[in-house]
Q: What sequence folds into this?
DNA sequence: GAGGGATAGGTGGGATTACCAACTAAAACT
DNA sequence: AGTTTTAGTTGGTAATCCCACCTATCCCTC
């Protein structure tokens, strides 16, 4: 099985990046999970259940998670126009700003790693990761909420 | 900045794999962090502080984490021969067995994703991820403990 | 168009995980 | 020897997570 090596590398890099993100989050009073929420919402709104599914977390865990972030003014809830049971969650301007700052920090923190690749290799890596992101590993990618 | 795209893809794939691992862990009564500990210890022993550094977690968080896993018979502590303050942590046979089983589950769960790449692309991906793992992103890779 | 089941989100309770500050023991430095 | 640093643990509090339930809404079928 060649795919053993891929999964191994994928898991390793996941652990590595996770460590970096955990530290960046901690420096900004955010848990890794909160960081993930911000990351997911960076370019879309999502319903609570979709977030929970993607995070691999219980719906009820999302409630408090969103509550706390909402109390900090980072994100907000909005009635979903198509389904009155559902709520869309999205970043506030402050949340978006923080998220962009965190991404900048991540770029900086990962720079020693990415610097090891020349520009063509970087492009290749992005291309190769693309199908992984799409290929439904788990709940599938988040669809635009509606 | 080309590296933006790399970091973006890296973070995205990290989130994706994290979700998969979270679910696998939950199915086996393991938190994501515990999973990471097992993953790190799969092929080496490590000192408590090194684990904490790599995980991006406080030393004190490690103690309880190790306690609980030790109570479950998954890992054990051992005096470090070179530094009498330090403790090496390592997997028990049961822990190793569980870890291998979890990796198998991860391979299975990620198979729909990795299947998107042919064998040559997989090899390329592994090669491109290699420097990321080595390029000191954060505390650097764990050195063999001594 | 009225039930019946499924789904979206939230509450409340209990265990785990997290941080910080303080502590002991051992190393390292001067 | 004495001071400072480092490794790991403990104790206290807040965040996170799961589970079992709950209400409101949707969807489906009759």
A:
């Amino acid at each position: 099985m060649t795919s053993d090596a891929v999964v191994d590398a994928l898991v390793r890099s996941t652990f590595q990046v996770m460590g970096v993100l955990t530290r960046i989050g901690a420096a900004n009073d955010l848990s890794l999970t909160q960081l993930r929420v911000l990351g997911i919402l960076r370019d879309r709104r999502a319903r609570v259940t979709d977030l929970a599914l993607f995070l691999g977390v219980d719906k009820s865990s999302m409630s408090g998670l969103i509550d706390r972030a909402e109390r900090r003014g980072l994100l907000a809830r909005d009635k979903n126009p198509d389904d009155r049971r559902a709520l869309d969650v999205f970043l506030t301007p402050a949340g978006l700003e923080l998220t962009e700052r965190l991404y900048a920090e991540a770029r900086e923190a990962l720079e020693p790693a990415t610097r090891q690749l020349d520009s063509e290799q970087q492009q290749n890596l992005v291309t190769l990761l693309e199908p992984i992101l799409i290929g439904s590993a788990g709940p599938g990618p988040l669809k635009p909420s509606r």
